[in-house]
Amino acid sequence: MPIIFREPGWEPLRELEQLQRRMDRLFQSGFGLERAPWRVGVYPLVNVSEDRDHIYVRAELPGVKSEDLDITIQDNSLILRGERKIATEEKQVNFHRRERESGFFRRVVALPTLIHPDKVDATFKDGILTVKLAKPEAAKPRQIKVKVA
Amino acid sequence: MAEKELQPKAKAEVPTTAERVRPGRVFLPAVDIFETPEALVLVADMPGVSGDKVALDLKENHLIISGEVGPPMGEGETMVEQEYFTGDFHREFHLGSIIDQTKIDAAMKDGVLRLVLPKVEKAKPRKIQVKVG
């Protein structure tokens, strides 16, 4: 005769249900279309996107002049350095609001794939910096045909 | 002058008052507002907004600033890492002084809007001479 050990209060079905609910929550929070932005804590915040041939790194830098911005590629990282200057107004002005900030920034962005260091293109339009980096042949997606035997 | 390192700040979203037709988020632009003896000057950070996409509306002393942004990515791109959200900008103000509507000057450069609102003659401060009798 088989002996079944049973702990008082052990309900396997309910535990399964709980696990299911927890998994659902995990999928909803982590794999939804719109994730909460990553917390990095370094200015400027960047968005990285890609298509077949390029990687695009974008940052919002309103009021930064292109001569105050320094972009470097080092190994597999993109380094953004610069300074945001806010024109000092004459002394006789009185402020109602002062929310805009000035200062310098240094940010390293790790790139998701290898890139061509000499095929980098940066544009600055309406306060948004876009750095376009070309992927080398090896990093591009390839279609593999299945041979029919 | 001591150097200051910039800290990242997530843009604040506009509290919803009415339903929007255009999809997407709406943010409050960070502003500086200051007053000179002649005018009220408003400077707003609106990255991604070009000069022709800014709308200004001034009724009596109620000022509305809004700006539309273009698509956040080019066609065929997929997001790999997203640290900030993009969306339109909107902010409203009640102005304390009376503005000369005919002389308003607005300029958009590098994603920064600069609005000069000249005060009408009677709102300008005057020094009052005290007569000694």
The total of helices of chain A stands at: 1
Measured as a percent range, the helix fraction of chain A is 10-25%
Round the Cα radius of gyration of chain B to an integer and report it. 19 Å
State the low-pLDDT regions of chain B, or none. none
- The total beta strand count of chain A reads 8
H and E order of chain A: HEEEEEEEE
Shape of chain A: flat
Figure out the total of helices of chain B.
Answer: 0
Q: Termini separation of chain A (Å)?
A: 55 Å
Largest sheet of chain B, in brief, is: 4 strands, mixed
Largest interface: A-B, 50 and 41 residues
Query: What is the straight-line distance between the termini of chain B?
Result: 51 Å
Helices and strands of chain B, in N-to-C order?
EEEEEEEEE
**How many strands appear in the DSSP assignment of chain B?**
9
Question: What is the class of the domain at 25-72 and 85-120 in chain B in the CATH system?
Answer: Mainly Beta
What is the residue-mean pLDDT of chain A, rounded to a whole number? Answer: 83
What structural class results from the helix and strand content of chain A?
mainly beta
With strands numbered from the N-terminus, the spatial order across the biggest sheet of chain B is 1-7-5-4
Low-confidence stretches of chain A: none
Please describe the topology of this protein:
The complex is a heterodimer of chains A (149) and B (133).
Chain A: H1 12-31, E1 46-50, E2 54-60, E3 69-74, E4 77-84, E5 94-98, E6 103-110, E7 120-125, E8 128-134
Antiparallel strand pairs in A: 1-2, 2-8, 3-4, 4-6, 7-8
Chain B: E1 25-27, E2 31-35, E3 39-45, E4 54-59, E5 62-67, E6 78-82, E7 87-94, E8 105-109, E9 112-118
Parallel strand pairs in B: 1-7
Antiparallel strand pairs in B: 2-3, 3-9, 4-5, 5-7, 8-9
Question: What's the quick description here?
Answer:
The complex is a heterodimer of chains A (149) and B (133). Chain A is mainly beta.
Q: Would you give an account of this structure?
A:
The complex is a heterodimer of chains A (149) and B (133). A four-stranded antiparallel beta sheet of chain A has the order 1-2-8-7, with no helix packed on it. A three-stranded antiparallel beta sheet of chain A has the order 3-4-6, with no helix packed on it. Chain A is 13% helix and 35% strand. Chain A starts with 11 loop residues before the first helix and ends in a 15-residue tail after the last strand. The model of chain A has no long low-confidence stretch (mean pLDDT 83). In chain A, strand 1 and strand 2 form a beta hairpin. By secondary structure, chain A is mainly beta. Chain A contains one helix and eight strands; from the N terminus they run H-E-E-E-E-E-E-E-E. Chain A has a domain of 78 residues: Immunoglobulin-like. By secondary structure, chain B is an all-beta fold. Chain B has a domain of 84 residues: Immunoglobulin-like (Sandwich), CATH 2.60.40. Chain B has a four-stranded mixed beta sheet, with no helix packed on it. Chain B has a four-stranded antiparallel beta sheet with strand order 2-3-9-8, with no helix packed on it. The interface between A and B is large, with 50 and 41 residues. Strand 1 of chain A pairs antiparallel with strand 6 of chain B, so a sheet runs across the interface.
